[in-house]
Design goal:
Helix content: 55-70%
Shape: elongated
């Protein structure tokens, strides 16, 4: 099936990193210019990555070009991507979330049992409510 493509392109480790930086810059540009992406706080790496993935997919199903990426960069890139996803959350949204759902942000790790004045772990305090 790979022989049916007009052009086959294999990107090495350096080219894959350059493509990911391009995707990040594309996501940053789209995040600045498309208001709904900014309003809904969609992360820049997700915007750029999905856009590039859609472009590569459309090129592949059209039969124009088959782009393959080097797998050596896959695991470090995934670790960096998922480790930094939380950095894009707005502080005001985190503050509002901490007031409405404190258990989601870990504020309830130690809950106070007012009857006994003991500190209980969250897992124990949930069952005592």
């Amino acid at each position: 099936m790979a022989s049916s493509y007009m052009l086959q392109l294999h990107l090495g480790a350096v080219e894959t990193v350059i493509l990911s930086l391009f995707a990040f810059l594309l996501g940053t540009t789209m995040h600045k210019h498309i208001n709904i992406l900014h309003r809904w706080a969609i992360p820049v790496p997700a915007i750029g990555g999905l856009t590039v993935a859609l472009i590569v997919f459309l090129l592949q199903i059209s039969g124009l070009i088959l782009i393959t990426l080097d797998k050596a960069v896959l695991v470090p890139a995934m670790v960096a991507f998922f480790a930094t996803m939380g950095f894009s959350g707005a502080r005001t949204n985190l503050y509002i979330l901490s007031k409405s759902h404190p258990s989601l942000l870990g504020h309830e790790y130690f809950a106070c049992d007012h009857a006994n004045h003991h500190r209980l772990r969250t897992s124990e305090s949930i069952w005592l409510r």
